Each structure stands twice: as C-alpha cells, then as structure tokens.
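I have been asked to look over a protein record a colleague put together. Thanks in advance; the entry in question is below.
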Amino acid sequence: MNKIIKTIPIFPLNGALLLPDGNLPLNIFEPRYIAMVNYALSKDKIIGMIQCQKNSSKQTFRIGCAGKISSFSETKDKRYLINLYGVSKFKILDEIKHKKKFRIFNVQFENSNNSFSKFDSNLFNKKLFINKINQYLKTNDMSANLESVSKIDSKSLILMIAMICPFGVNEKQMLLETKNINHLVEILIKLIDFSTHSYYENQRIN
C-alpha cells in the first residue's frame, strides 16, 4: 500500500490521549494554540496530538494520533472549545521550519484501515471489564454511574476508559502504540490491575 504522508500542526500535550475513533474535547486558550486551531480550520481541520518525553516540550514521542476538528465554538473570553475525532495514528518523519509559534511536522499516517477499526466483541468480557473499572475508580477516589456506563457500546467504552484514566505519560503512550483494539484491552486491563493491586498493597503496608 502507498504510504500516506501529511503535513500537520502538532499539539504536544502530556496527559491528553487521543485514540483512533475516540473523541477528545479540548479547551484552547494559549495564543499559539489558538493560532494552531485557526491554521487547522483553514486547511483540512487535522491536528496531531502527541506526548512529550521526560516532560520536555521539545522532545516528543515518535507516535501520535491525528484528530479532525468535529466541533468548534468560541467563548466570550476568546477561548476555543473544540472536539477532536481520532482519525489515524501517525509516525513523525521530520519537523517543518517556519515562523509560526506552533509546531508543524511531516508525518506518516497508518494505512487506510486504522488499527482500531476492527473489534472482536467475542474476545471481550464487558461485565468483568466494568467491574475492574469500578475497582480502579474507587482506588483513585473517582466514581461513575455504572448503569450509564453499561449502556455504552463495548468499543466506545474501551476507548473512553483508555483515554480518561489518569495513567502516566509512558503508560498512555503504551496504550496508543498497541497494535489493535483487542491488544489495547489487554494492556488496559493490565494497567488497571497493576494500579489496583498496588493500591491495596499500600493499604496493607500502612
């Protein structure tokens, strides 16, 4: 297959994970990123989300996820409220030199069918997954309406939990770089189990 090469603005933001087919709401207030949104709107509405290594704003991971602006509004105090819909993971090729205050890169998109497009629900135990989510939320002093959560379709639920769980940068990058959604579930459950186990181990020690 032909490689899909694109030139896109990049938003380096640790803690914000976008996955293919996921939705990421963003509150944009810094002037340079308001300019970035304006640039994206004038092109094809694509913004690349990526994380930085070791809290460095310059050194990013090589793999990110491109999102398309699916909704946009401006507040009275000139902030932008946008939603990015995950289109495709990408690999950074090189950075473009320019005079704008945000960063622009040449990137290589995944082949036409993104790695999260196919989901085998037969390999997914939704009830067990929700129970693990509930345990994890309790250990992090968070809560959710489990009745509402259970009504979300399995794929959307997996993407949502992977994106909102307060994992560290390396863990979130690990989730992004999974090869498909079933692999994503496997890694996500391992991270949840590890976090929950560590919490109860600490409780017993203390």
Notes: The first strand starts at residue 4 and ends at 12. Residues 181-205 form the longest helix (25 residues). The chain has two domains: 4-109, 121-205. The radius of gyration is 18 Å.
